[in-house]
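Hello,

I think I submitted the MIG job twice by accident. Can you confirm which output corresponds to this input? Input:
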Amino acid sequence: MLRSIAPALIVLATPAYAQTVSPRADGVEVQAGSLTLRVTAQTDAILRVRIARDGKFPEDASWAVPANVRAKSVKVAPLADGFATSSLRVHVDPATLRLSIDDAAGKRITADLPDPIKLDGTGFTLRKAMPVGEQYFGLGDKTGPFDRRGASYVDWNTDSFGFSPATDPIYKSIPFFVSVGGAGGSYGFFLDNTWRSWFDFGHREDGTLAIGSANGPIDYYVIAGPSSADVVRRYTDLTGKAPLAPRWALGYQQSRYSYMSDAEVREIAAKMRQSQVPLDLIWLDIDYQYRNWPFTVNTQTFPDLKKLAGDLKQDGIRLVAITDLHVAAAPGKDYAPYDSGTAGGHFLRNPDGSTYVGPVWPGPAVFPDFTRKASRDWWGTLFKGFVDDGVAGFWNDMNEPAIFETPTKTMPLDTMHRIDSDDFAPRDASHAEIHNVYGMENSRATFEGLKKLRPNDRPFVMTRASFAGGQRYAVTWTGDNNASWEHLKLSVQQLVNLGLSGFSYSAADVGGFTGGPSPELLTRWYEIAAFTPVFRVHAAKDTPRTEPWADGPEHLAIRRRFIEARYRLLPYLYAVAEQNARTGDPIMRPVWYDYPAARTAGCDQSMAFTLGRSLLIAASPKPESPRPYDICLPAGGWYDYWTGLPESGDKLSETPALDRLPVYVRAGTILPRQPLTQSTAQVPQGPLSLDIYPGEECSGTLYWDDGLTTNGATLRQTIRCTQTASGLTIDFDAREGAYKPWWNGIAVTVHGWQGGAKIKGTTATANDAARTLSFTIPDQPRAARVTVSRQ
Ligand code: MIG
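Support: Only one job matched these inputs. Its output is below.
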């Protein structure tokens, strides 16, 4: 911390009211009338802005940004009206507290409008400029247009069964957006405030970006780029990275509300294996429980959960069980979650001190106080039985929290929480303050509980509600979507925006939760979801079946082929996931994340996305239409993923066919893949494949480990290729880490090749029609060069 120098006090001439500018070692503080604005350079590119009313700054505490991150700041150079960091220039108008932020060259990143801070009782609104040409993304999985310009949003976690592409708010509140296209490059804005909040992107007032909240601290971060990738990475420096998931989380996942019995689960598993559809996970929805009481099992229908989990595991299939937070209010029934929770004082209270009881699935239910560390710890212990039974992952649903039989769909706003956690001062807090972080803290309690029960294992938790920073604890999905083409389209935009908002592991119910998809819609959804971070088929009760075989052999064949493609891609997908854990780069990205010019390319790219930097998936922007559509490929060259042939030109016309999804590989990619398995738990038989697509900056990354633990050995290796006058050289860097991989050999395929070739120590096979050259070499753990000479 660099806050030790005594601030010099500059009193300005003829103030309308008191104005002082106090330089600080790591920023500036400016007072105008009853407001004091403090800007702190957390890093050279991240500014924190806090505003005090009546001289009192709000508590310096946060659910989203850990204390050790907030404590860091850097030294700045004072300016007459602000300060500079190595990459930013910050100006504050001392009369109005109007803030503007430029890059080092003076290009505008973001600026307040005149009259920038409006107070309204406990609430406030900040007003900022919205230059023409800027677009806005993020805010989690909110519906509405992909680019948020022109729309307005409310953050208030809401159980939104059957939401439409225009419903707002829905389940999550992630008060963070990325602005793209401004003069000073991309920037991010994060409002660290948990109360009911809003973002208005010029909806109400043209050219005005208005951000407000009903209550709570005026406390926000401006995160400079200039690239969108810089912004997203820095946002995850603040709010945390999503830890690398267990590898099986990247496999195909089958769910339904509900698989009703042990027998039905076994039948689904057997049918998957018979149909040769790779599968890693089966999900147990609420009906496995006794009377919908969390942490119980209906032993009539699931007589031996441990045996079921064990038998499935033999087959490479793991179980995930739903564990909702609404504990049945069942005194005297020998129901441990209620009894131990009551004894420990872990449930939320009414203002009069009595325990709050609300109706949900179990009937009358009580609700853990997840903002208390002690209550989170208690919650974490409830998983012991299931963990001992071998249940691999947990599903935290209904944690907005959802309450039945009330128009607000949630608990009264005066329900009392106790904050006793992190660096907060212990105090009581109303539900109005905690509501938006309740689901995140529920998933945190689950995650931390699992860490304690199995310290070396990577927990797998999926949550419905969350807040900024929730990616540290859980993956998420978009809730109760609908079986429609417009929801398929919406889902792609939701997952892309979630990725930009820190939630890199995301899913949408494949096929739609409500309704019932046509066979074509369901097949198309499988195809696209095969390239999304979490691939989970799920559907509501009383809807048609959506398992891969549900619509007959032709649809099954297509769906299987896409699931297989995903399993072959696992070495690539896993390396992208590891990159995400390290850097914050999303797994699934808008095309312009890595290729900025794509944002303004001519084509409608609302259904295009990349999986890592190397694969571009170009689904139809009108997925319901049989009409041809244009695909814009970013500059630099691409290959067709399915044929391996280079594309000529950067604009392609695609005529939709149900069995085809256009996917492209960046020229300059070395793509690792593996032989097909039926589960990520199976050891692939055969060599690792490396497909080389020659082009600029040609490289690829191998990352591998046991896929399960956090403390085991790892393997990391970069491979590069260079086109030479006589052919191609492939350079293996020395491998880092001691993990011993499953492969002994490497099957190399060079794409876009013509003619024969000579390689020392092996024989190469050319295929002129496919324009490939293939050869096998031993594994290359050490630095080595393979020279491919044209013949
Ligand atoms: O009130 O657990 O979004 O995925 O199948 C419905 C039953 C409760 C809502 C979830 C959905 C899940 C369902 N749940």
